[in-house]
Amino acid sequence: MAKLFFLLSGENPTLPFSEAKSILKAEGFKYQVLEELAHLLRVEADIKCIESVKSRSSLTKTCGIEVFNCEANAEEILENLQKAEINSFIRDGESFVVRVSRIRGCSPNINGWMLEQKIGEIILNKLRWVKVNLKVPQRTFLGILTENKFIFGLKLADIKSKSFIERGPRKKVFFHPAAMSTKLARCMINLAQAKKNDLVLDPFCGTGSILLEAGLIGCSILGFDLNRRMVIGSLQNLRYYGVEPLGIILSDARLPPLNKNEADCVVTDPPYGLSASTFGLKPQVLFEDFLSAIGEKVKRGGRLCIAAPKSLEIDELGSTLGFRHIESHFIHIHRRLTREILVFERD
Q1: Which domains does the chain possess?
Q2: Which pTM was predicted?
Q3: What pLDDT, on a 0 to 100 scale, did the predictor assign at position 239?
């Protein structure tokens, strides 16, 4: 077990934290949360978990192993560095660079550039056979200033947004304006704690954004949609990225053609906006009918992650229909719509 840190996206105040912890649970890693700070999660866990977070997360930016943490005070930072066993994190002959990241303007009294210089000097004095390389270092030491604290560690992984951008709604073969963003689709898969080879069902699959992200992490995927155009378009998008579903079926989500306890988890974004079609049904009725029908199709202990308008109070509805409400996250879209991302577990 090691002390690890995850530098998180600031796109939402709660989703990045929950996504990172859900990945650890899905991948079977035991962990203890040490601290949650602005854009930063500190945990104690097996260092191998970083590879899982790197390969799955959409809202984590950087993963690393912690060297020390202290109050955001320049003198205290340098004192802690002098005591730290830096030689455990870099080998003789390797090159390094020091970077200091400031979250939301924290600790403005500390000069980040000067701190980088002083930390680099101490490392060079302590370890005579290492060298600085500002452009292509073999090791990157990262100091993070957040909420009057300083976390210093060795960066082990960066998670680039490029692949998510390349799979964005407008990059796909088939596009619809109501399509979910790639990052949120992946995040919802992670919140559902889907594992490799799990059967992930999206009963309102639309353009296939959620199914694609599940397929890319190794899940078996199955989608339903009542719109023939969506069924064809979803299949086109999946195959364009080399993902083959178990099936994309023209079906009403309120009458799912699925056996009892067949789906490991359900991840979906039912229609409710102006650009989405509910085939004449009021959103409240659609959600109620869907949740009533899908409950017995999910394995006991399986998760349902669903997006819905906050105004529909789906947390209460789900709880009355055999699901245990685990958590909710909120995304402000505009004045009249706040999207709620809900996670349920089947009792």
Answers
A1: 2-158 (3.30.2130.30), 166-346 (3.40.50.150)
A2: 0.95
A3: 97
